[in-house]
Design a protein that fits this description.
With 228 residues, the chain is of the alpha+beta class. 58% of the residues lie in helices and 8% in strands. It has 2 domains: 96 residues, Glutaredoxin (3-Layer(aba) Sandwich), CATH 3.40.30; 106 residues, Glutathione S-transferase Yfyf (Class Pi), Chain A, domain 2 (Up-down Bundle). Helix 7 crosses helix 9. The protein is globular and about 50 Å long.
C-alpha cells in the first residue's frame, strides 16, 4: 500500500516549496518511494478526522499500513530508517546524520522561522525594526556556526543524508536574503541541494498543487460585467 501524506489544498507559501510537506515529498523522492497525497483545506485540517491524525491540526501527516505519523521530522526519520539512501550504514555516521536532523529542526529552524513570521505579521508594528534586528542577530549567529562547520565540504557529514535534507529545507526559507548571502559556502550548499533531481521532482509536485488551485479560483471567479 502506498504511503499517503497530507498537504495544503491552497498553500500559504504560494508554491515556493516552504510548506513542510515539501520535506516529506523530497525524502520520498530521494528513496524512490511513490506516494499519494490528500489535499486539505484549512477548515478540513481542524476537523476531528484530521485531528485524529495530527493532534494540532497541521500538515503533513503520513499513513501507511495502519501507521500514522505527524511532524515532518519524525516522518522523514521514518522514511530514512525504512529505506536505503538517506542514512549511512555505519552506526556512528548514522547517528551523526540523525544529530544533524535534530540540529536543523531544533537549532537552526526556530530563529529562521520566527524571523519569517515577524516579517509577515509584524511589519506594520512600531517595534518591527528593533525586533527584526534582534532576530537577524540570532539567525546570523546560527548561520555563522553552520558555515564554519560546513567549510568547503559538499554536505554536513560525508554523503548527502536526511540531515542535509532537513537543513536545506530550513535554509530554503532564507533564499534571496542578505543573511544567507553573507556565507557563500551556504549559498553553494543550498544550490547543490536544490539541484538534486529528487528535490526538483518534489518541488514541481508541490508547486503544481498551488497552480491548479489558482486556476480553479480563476475559473470560479465571476467574469467582467456584461460577459455572457
Amino acid at each position: 500500500m502506498l504511503p499517503t501524506i497530507t498537504a495544503f489544498e491552497r498553500s500559504p507559501d504560494r508554491g515556493r516549496g516552504l510548506a513542510r510537506d515539501m520535506r516529506v515529498r523530497w525524502a520520498l523522492e530521494e528513496v524512490g518511494q511513490p506516494y499519494a497525497v490528500r489535499l486539505l483545506s484549512f477548515e478540513a485540517m481542524q476537523q476531528p478526522a484530521h485531528r485524529a491524525r495530527h493532534p494540532f491540526g497541521q500538515i503533513p501527516t503520513y499513513e501507511q499500513d495502519g501507521l500514522v505519523l505527524f511532524e515532518s521530522g519524525a516522518i522523514v526519520l521514518h522514511i530514512a530508517q525504512t529505506h536505503p539512501g538517506l542514512l549511512p550504514e555505519a552506526p556512528d555516521a548514522r547517528l551523526r546524520a540523525v544529530s544533524w536532523m535534530f540540529a536543523a529542526l531544533n537549532t537552526i529552524e526556530p530563529p529562521v522561522f520566527e524571523r519569517a513570521l515577524c516579517v509577515v505579521l509584524e511589519r506594520e508594528t512600531p517595534w518591527f525594526a528593533e525586533r527584526l534586528e534582534t532576530l537577524d542577530k540570532r539567525v546570523r549567529q546560527r548561520l555563522g556556526e553552520l558555515s564554519l562547520h560546513l567549510g568547503q565540504s559538499p554536505w554536513l557529514d560525508g554523503e548527502f543524508s536526511a540531515g542535509d535534507l532537513l537543513m536545506l529545507s530550513v535554509l530554503l526559507r532564507l533564499q534571496g536574503s542578505t543573511l544567507l548571502e553573507e556565507h557563500p559556502n551556504l549559498l553553494d550548499y543550498l544550490a547543490r541541494g536544490t539541484a538534486r533531481p529528487a528535490f526538483q521532482r518534489a518541488f514541481q509536485a508541490q508547486a503544481e498543487v498551488f497552480l491548479q488551485a489558482q486556476q480553479a479560483d480563476a475559473q470560479a471567479s465571476p467574469g467582467p460585467r456584461g460577459a455572457a
